[in-house]
Amino acid sequence: MNIDSIKTLGDLKNSNYRPRSIKDEMRDNLIICLRKKENPFHGIIGYEDTVIPELQTAILSRHNIILLGLRGQAKTKIARLMINLLDEYIPVIDNTEINDDPFNPISVTARRIILENGDNTPVRWMHRSERYTEKLATPDVSVADLIGDVDPIKAASLKLPYSDERVIHFGLIPRSHRSIFVINELPDLQARIQVALFNILEERDIQIRGFKVRMPLDIQFIFTANPEDYTNRGSIVTPLKDRIDSQILTHYPKTHEYSRAITEQEANLAEEQKTKIETPELLKDLVELIAFEARDSEYIDSKSGVSARLTISAYENLISTAERRNLLNGDGKTTSRISDLFGVIPSITGKIELVYEGEQEGPYKVAQILIGKAIKHHFASLFPSPENLKKTENTSPYQPIVNWFQKGNKIDLISDLSKKDYEKNLQNVPGLSDIVNKYYKKEKDEDKFLLMEFVLFGLSEHSLLSRYRLENGIQFKDMLSSMFTMPASDDENLEDDDHDIFNS
User: Fold this and answer.
1) How far is Cα 306 from Cα 353, in angstroms, rounded to an integer?
2) Residue 85, class by beta-carbon neighbours within 10 Å (0-12 exposed, 13-18 middle, 19+ buried)?
3) 263-273 core/surface letters (b: 16 or more CB in 10 A; e: else)
4) Torsion, CA 78, CA 81, CA 87, CA 90, rounded to 10
5) For the chain, what is the domain count?
6) What is the pLDDT of residues 116-138, one digit of tens each?
7) Residue-level pLDDT at 300
8) CB 3.0 to 4.6 Å from 317: which of 19, 344, 351, 430, for a disulfide?
9) How far apart are CA 206 and CA 291, in angstroms?
10) pLDDT, tens digit, for every residue of 396-455?
11) Is residue 53 located within the same domain as residue 139?
12) Structural domain that includes position 169
């Protein structure tokens, strides 16, 4: 159908166009996608066998939907992708407020235009991108915002009573006729405002200032909510919840592979960062494992959740930490390091809700603990576990490294070390390159140095070395001697997070 040639109601009648409700429209387009094995929810990762099938079922059933889940579980993104199931264009009567269907006008204005113009009624084609409205529920949202209110100026100028529909100033919901309307964080909406949605969902009536207006609105409602909000900030009133046909539970990525794919898809990196900063797979995995550790941490409120935005921001900060060092040293390219993980702490502290024990430690220390646990658990999957070695009589492959530190040696990995100095410092530790070559002989040189650094971090997490957070980097020392030779700055600032021992 050539929409450019259809400009009036008469043209539309002579075409093959047949009007459908928005729910039928989405259902029909989903059926086409399913038959063609196409995915209208492109970019939603990890929900292929859980959320997406339930969502498709709800659409096939022509249901209003609520997406229920913790923050950062792609609820809003799913809602926004719903427009992919709409027709590319639909006809509306031109110069009407509520997108009236030319074949089924519901507003007084649209009916008047058709009465006056007949088949010459002007028609415009509305793109699907215009058929999406999103409102964040906040306590200050009013009935007038969502449904509408009487306009006294319009009533006075037209000399009409307030009960006349022509004096109504329509709110967001009537203006979303034949569209998708999304209310995010539904429990934050005051109970009296939620009540105003009852008849719209069930009877499609709206009431404004006590005047009942019968308007058969055609809207696909999608709501989102966080279970935590049911107790902390509000709740969904039971009659409204009963009128929402399908409740779909979302969840966090079940594997760090899914989590990594989401992070790499959503991270907003500059072109320079993509070309000049190399991030090994090991570091990408560690960024995701930080979030997994956070979701299981006794310091963090599990009911609040740990958003996927944490890993996205952390990954961006990891890249930027390496980029900053690269710019300071004037190198053409650089590779991210394990020590760069401590540049992601600002991405963690603002995205976790702490319980009492966490508040006692402080967000900065909790972030350090999460990074340490991620390193410790991943270390055992790449190298022999020091804990398992203790249970056997075999000689530990880490002994030459530990012996060197026991002789009073130490190593400082300063944040802004050039590539040359970074590699030289690691090569100075006897046995460090040997253990990497033993298990990862075929790795390229840059990755070998990263693994050498990873071994130091892994040994410190297993209490074979001590690790201190310096103001400008990380220092590794012998565990036992460090107890008696703690730097003066650490003695004086033991309560200061910047000088806390990671493990002792």
Assistant:
1) 8
2) buried
3) beebbebeeeb
4) 100
5) 3
6) 999 999 999 999 999 999 999 98
7) 95
8) 344
9) 45
10) 899 999 999 999 999 999 999 999 999 999 999 999 999 999 999 988 888 999 999 999
11) yes
12) 3-249
